[in-house]
């Protein structure tokens, strides 16, 4: 029974020494001197702020993309013991001793290093030779721009890592398809494809381009499977469901999980709260939650409320009034009603309070039991401090003459009666009997007499404000003939209490007092996710021209660079500059592949087959991955209205670099005949690769930031007049 103990347990393993050597070289090239410079380098000033907010659990919104990449950077800070205390306000600022620079830069560097063996394996899985695969890996290893981008607290190297991992996983899955469908390894690589795609999209939305490419390729492969008569209908359905699960369901679930972790970690109120709805703000610890805790949930007749405009652009603001009136005549000569001003005020103030009144009753307190206001009910809104009624009539608004002026009515004993009835319409209602709720309900106020809708003026969107007589506050109007709805027409109750004092003086004291009731208004995760996702997609910071911004056309020929860091006293500096020979070779390879493919297609149409069928299929599949990957990661930038930088091209460049050894091997295998031509071709490849290495070494001082170069040496590196190499004045 114990006979197996008589023989030793032996484990054998195959180790690809190419992979080991490439991984070691990748780690050395990316990790060497990682803490240098110990200063803020370019966009570290941007991402570092988010890392600090993660460390302090403070909520933020970044319109550049999903949170997964930021969380990975924050993970490095957490593992390094970072407490989040550093002022990220200036490129070049020296890091204090509490900032673990090496740990913060570690994950991007590891991701960049692992891209080297991934490139090798991708070409092997594409059925190209180990020599071609080794060439692709070495080109990635020696690409200066990829080295620079991976050595700092930036996201591009992490994005490229997940993109390449997704491509490799799919290729391994596809190659296993032929002989071991539904095996353990088949499932592993299929699931890893979906996970990697989700991670790529979670780092930056640019990852969506490669994800869509793989979905298209997977769809084409499945389309060919449908024509395979050896597969039963049940087998085809299983293949379809497996791909749907791994490539759609799991990526979506993982994408949601990134936001779940993000929102779980960031539970404290912070500086970005104001762009979120009141309900979202109230779900965060501190801030609005501290103010609104314990408010009544249902708005009733007699409720004292503040009304926040849902749009929140360019700033959040609340419906407001004060004792001052509109001027009898505006600067352009138009007349006004001379009624009490109503504005949208971007600060919390006692004049933001309004009382919801039943038009059929005089009391301004909540009855017992409270009578809730429902969708479709008609109310009057009484300004809490001045006790005047919210009103609009057929008088042009001060800044928006095509809209109606909104005021609080003053009876001047003239032929302008009060028109102060408003119908409550709950926009996000589930039924027509819904109760108006604090924070949760988004409502429109429709004027009963004129059907105008209470709206924050369009001038508010452009940042225009009322003149001095309106204290530079924002205009509120009655929008006539409104079709559909815009967020500027929607309001929600932010602060709320049940009014108990009928006398005005007692009521003014009450308006300053805290609420008493305790009703929770926490949002569900899906509600918070939907709102945050919408903000990320629609929130646009003002794009300003940057010194190092560029157009997509500049990237192909590398007519631009980015100065990442300059030593305060010496000539040491770091630039995002690529290997000129590699970039030019990648363009030539893409052009050669395109021309050869067109030539082959034309000749195949004429029944002339220049290459064997298996070589042709290999050529097409490699082009679909590499040239397709370049196209989907590059061409969309021509449609984007955003500030662009050279580093946006790096994912596309990576795919283009993979195409170089593919074209070289194809030329070597099919377009050379004599021994002399073979020898000449090999010699040219060696000379070309030597030039790649030479350029890499030449520019390594501005890739790593050391050694410091003299003025003459810096001038010698300016190979193009468009490059901005920094030279100090003597």
From TrEMBL:
Compartments, record wording: Endoplasmic reticulum membrane
Pfam families: MIR (PF02815), PMT (PF02366), PMT_4TMC (PF16192)
Positions of the MIR domain: 296-359, 370-427
This protein's UniProt keywords: Endoplasmic reticulum, Glycosyltransferase, Membrane, Repeat, Transferase, Transmembrane, Transmembrane helix
Membrane topology: Multi-pass membrane protein
UniProt GO cellular component terms: endoplasmic reticulum membrane
Record EC number: 2.4.1.109
Keyword presence, Transcription: no
Gene3D superfamilies for the chain: 2.80.10.50
Chain segments annotated as transmembrane: 9-32, 68-88, 100-120, 126-142, 154-174, 186-219, 240-261, 580-602, 614-632, 644-664, 676-695
InterPro entries linked to this entry: ArnT-like_N (IPR003342), MIR_dom_sf (IPR036300), MIR_motif (IPR016093), PMT-like (IPR027005), PMT_4TMC (IPR032421)
One Gene Ontology MF term: dolichyl-phosphate-mannose-protein mannosyltransferase activity
The reaction(s) this protein catalyses: a di-trans,poly-cis-dolichyl beta-D-mannosyl phosphate + L-threonyl-[protein] = 3-O-(alpha-D-mannosyl)-L-threonyl-[protein] + a di-trans,poly-cis-dolichyl phosphate + H(+); a di-trans,poly-cis-dolichyl beta-D-mannosyl phosphate + L-seryl-[protein] = 3-O-(alpha-D-mannosyl)-L-seryl-[protein] + a di-trans,poly-cis-dolichyl phosphate + H(+)
Pathway linked to the protein: Protein modification; protein glycosylation
Protein family (similarity comment): Belongs to the glycosyltransferase 39 family.
Name of the protein in question: Protein O-mannosyl-transferase 1
């Amino acid at each position: 029974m114990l006979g197996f103990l008589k023989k030793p347990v032996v484990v054998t393993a195959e180790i690809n020494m190419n992979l080991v050597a490439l991984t070691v070289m990748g780690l050395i090239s990316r990790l060497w001197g990682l803490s240098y410079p110990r200063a803020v380098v370019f966009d570290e000033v941007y991402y570092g702020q988010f890392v600090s907010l993660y460390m302090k659990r403070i909520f933020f919104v970044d319109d550049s993309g999903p949170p997964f990449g930021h969380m990975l950077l924050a993970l490095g800070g957490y593992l390094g013991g970072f407490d989040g205390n550093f002022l990220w306000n200036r490129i070049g600022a020296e890091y204090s001793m509490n900032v673990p620079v090496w740990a913060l830069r570690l994950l991007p560097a590891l991701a960049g290093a692992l891209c080297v063996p991934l490139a090798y394996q991708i070409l092997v899985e594409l059925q190209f030779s180990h020599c071609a695969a080794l060439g692709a890996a070495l080109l990635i290893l020696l690409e200066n721009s990829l080295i620079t981008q991976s050595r700092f607290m930036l996201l591009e190297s992490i994005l490229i890592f997940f993109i390449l991992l997704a491509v490799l996983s799919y290729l391994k899955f596809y190659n296993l398809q032929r002989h071991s469908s539904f095996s353990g390894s088949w499932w592993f690589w299929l699931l890893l494809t979906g996970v990697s795609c989700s991670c790529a999209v979670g780092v930056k939305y640019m990852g969506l381009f490669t994800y869509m490419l793989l979905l298209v390729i997977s769809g084409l492969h499945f389309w060919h499977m449908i024509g395979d008569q050896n597969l039963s209908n049940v087998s085809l359905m299983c293949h379809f469901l497996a791909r749907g699960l791994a490539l759609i369901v799991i990526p979506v679930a993982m994408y949601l999980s990134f936001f779940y972790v993000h929102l779980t970690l960031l539970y404290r109120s912070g500086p970005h709260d104001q762009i979120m709805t009141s309900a979202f703000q109230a779900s965060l610890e501190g801030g609005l939650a501290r103010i609104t805790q314990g408010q009544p949930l249902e708005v009733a007749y007699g409720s004292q409320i503040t009304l926040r405009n849902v749009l929140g652009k360019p700033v959040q603001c609340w419906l407001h009034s004060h004792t001052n009136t509109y001027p009898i005549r505006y600067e352009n000569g138009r007349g006004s009603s001379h009624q009490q001003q109503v504005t949208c005020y971007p600060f919390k103030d006692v004049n933001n309070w309004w009382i919801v009144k039943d038009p059929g009753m005089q009391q301004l307190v909540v009855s017992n039991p409270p009578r809730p206001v429902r969708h479709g009910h008609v109310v009057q809104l009484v300004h809490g401090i001045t006790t005047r009624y919210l009103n609009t009539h057929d008088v042009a608004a001060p800044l928006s003459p095509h809209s109606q002026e909104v005021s609080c009515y003053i009876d001047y004993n003239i032929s302008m009666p009060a028109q102060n009835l408003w119908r409550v319409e709950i926009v996000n209602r589930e039924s027509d009997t819904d109760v108006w709720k604090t924070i949760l309900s988004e409502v429109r106020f429709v004027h009963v007499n004129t059907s105008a809708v209470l709206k924050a003026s369009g001038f508010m969107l452009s940042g225009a404000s009322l003149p001095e007589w309106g204290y530079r506050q924002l205009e509120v109007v009655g929008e006539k003939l409104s079709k559909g709805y815009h967020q500027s027409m929607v309001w929600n109750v932010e602060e709320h209490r049940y009014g108990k004092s009928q006398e005005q003086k007692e009521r003014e004291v009450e308006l300053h007092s805290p609420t008493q009731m305790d009703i929770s208004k926490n949002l569900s995760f899906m509600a918070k996710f939907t709102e945050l996702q919408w903000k990320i997609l629609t929130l646009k910071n003002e794009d300003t021209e940057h010194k190092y911004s560029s157009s997509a056309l500049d990237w192909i020929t590398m007519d631009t660079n980015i100065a990442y860091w300059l030593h305060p006293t010496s000539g040491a500096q770091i630039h995002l500059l690529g290997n000129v020979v590699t970039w030019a070779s990648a363009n030539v390879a893409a052009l050669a592949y395109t021309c050869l493919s067109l030539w082959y297609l034309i000749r195949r149409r004429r029944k002339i087959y220049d290459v064997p069928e298996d070589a042709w299929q290999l050529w097409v599949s490699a082009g679909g991955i590499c040239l397709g990957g370049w196209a989907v990661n590059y061409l969309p930038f021509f449609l984007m209205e955003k500030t662009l930088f050279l580093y946006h091209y790096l994912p596309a460049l990576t795919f283009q670099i993979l195409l170089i050894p593919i074209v070289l091997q194809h030329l070597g295998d099919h377009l050379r005949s004599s021994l002399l031509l073979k020898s000449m071709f090999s010699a040219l490849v060696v000379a070309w690769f030597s030039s790649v290495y030479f350029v890499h070494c030449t520019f390594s001082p501005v890739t790593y930031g050391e050694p410091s170069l003299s003025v003459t040496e810096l001038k010698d590196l300016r190979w193009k007049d468009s490059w901005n190499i920094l030279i100090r004045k003597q």
